[in-house]
Amino acid sequence: MVIALSLLTTSFAVGVASAQTVMRISISSPQNSHQGVAIDTFAKEVEKLTDGRYVIKTFYASSLGAEREAMESVQMGTQELTWTSSGPVPNFVPEVKILDVPFLFRDYAHARAVLDGPIGDDLLKKFDARGFKALAWGENGFRHMTNNKHPIKVPTDMQGLKMRTVENPVHIEAYKAFGIIPTPMAFSEVFTALQQGTVDGQENPISVITASKFDQVQKYLTLTGHVYSPGMYLMNKASFDKLSDADKKAFIQAAKVGVQANRDRIDSDEKNAVADLTSKGMEIVETIDKAQFQEALKPVMASFEKQFGKDNMDAIRAVQ
Ligand code: EAX
User: Fold this and answer.
1) Which of 182, 223, 278, 311 suits 73 as a labelling partner, its CA being 20 to 30 A distant?
2) How far is the centre of ligand 1, averaged over its atoms, from the C-alpha of 150 (Å)?
3) 183 pairs with which residues across the strands?
4) pTM score, two decimals?
5) CATH numbers and ranges of domains, the chain
6) Residue 28 phi/psi, 5° resolution?
7) Does the C-beta of 262 come closer than 6 Å to ligand 1?
8) 226: which residues sit within 8 A by CB, 6+ positions away?
9) 228 — alpha (psi -120 to 50), left (phi > 0) or beta?
10) Would you give per-residue pLDDT tens digits along the chain (320 residues)?
């Protein structure tokens, strides 16, 4: 009886193994980062919640392609999943552009409340019609400027700086208003571009700056916090639709657990970053007069209000 039972268990185990589905998820940052934690946690949770029927293989540092390429692959279904920043998203889902308006969010608590509430839920649904299932909002963080020319203390310090930017029209428009010469480029090329002086600087959240070791190739950092950059878990829509209802819930739940780990890592990065990056030789301007920087953006803000609707921007600002 005992033997028969163990045989039964074995054949059952083999059956499960052969029914295993392997999927891939990618990020642009290295594994040891807020993005790495986001997908590692997601992968672990999916396996746990589906009893190992789904295995998620994780790929770091743009090894399956930069964020835009990863989105294209997920849209076509040649890659099942990716975790991306909002950088390339407007080219696929224009409605998401509004989130990258400069100085729209007061702080992390505000941004998270918006994304976790009805506005965030509505925006996640916009991905459906473009071949994606957006499982959850993650977080890339508030973006800050680094460069090799001089410290940025007042808006005029940005004049004429050649800065790498993401391939996002909202960023490009805003940085032009700052007097920056924007040079859009895939993240995978940024370290080398900074090292070789192809650009003077770049802008990214603290978590990205530390994980990608930009301190090795950049001298000055100003905590401008000029844009909040969301992240998101994206899945090929057809792959998601094929899942059973219970598995759909499992994938969404796994993404939610991943978001928590992702945000926790950002919180701890933010606490340690100034001391850490100073010890690595960066010169950091910790506070700016935000009102002055906002003043410089006035003309472009009028254009954003027209594009996205002042009501929609106010609705985001009003969230407590
Ligand atoms: O890993 O391209 C970028 O600057 C994005 O912030 C990216 O997520 C960094």
Assistant:
1) 182
2) 23
3) 164
4) 0.93
5) 2-315 (3.40.190.170)
6) -95, -25
7) no
8) 102, 103, 142, 143, 144, 145, 174, 203, 293
9) beta
10) 444 444 443 334 444 445 899 999 999 999 999 999 999 999 999 999 999 999 999 999 999 999 999 999 999 999 999 999 999 999 999 999 999 999 999 999 999 999 999 999 999 999 999 999 999 999 999 999 999 999 999 999 999 999 999 999 999 999 999 999 999 999 999 999 999 999 999 999 999 999 999 999 999 999 999 999 999 999 999 999 999 999 999 999 999 999 999 999 999 999 999 999 999 999 999 999 999 999 999 999 999 999 999 999 999 999 99
| 21, β-bridge pairs | 54
The residues that bridge with 147 in the sheet, in sequence order, are 201, 220
Structure tokens belonging to residue 310: 């002042």
Say how many Å lie between the CA of residue 132 and the centre of ligand 1: 20
List of residues 6+ apart from 140 with CB closer than 8 A: 34, 35, 85, 86, 205, 207, 208, 229, 230, 231
Distance 246 CA to ligand 1 centre (A): 33
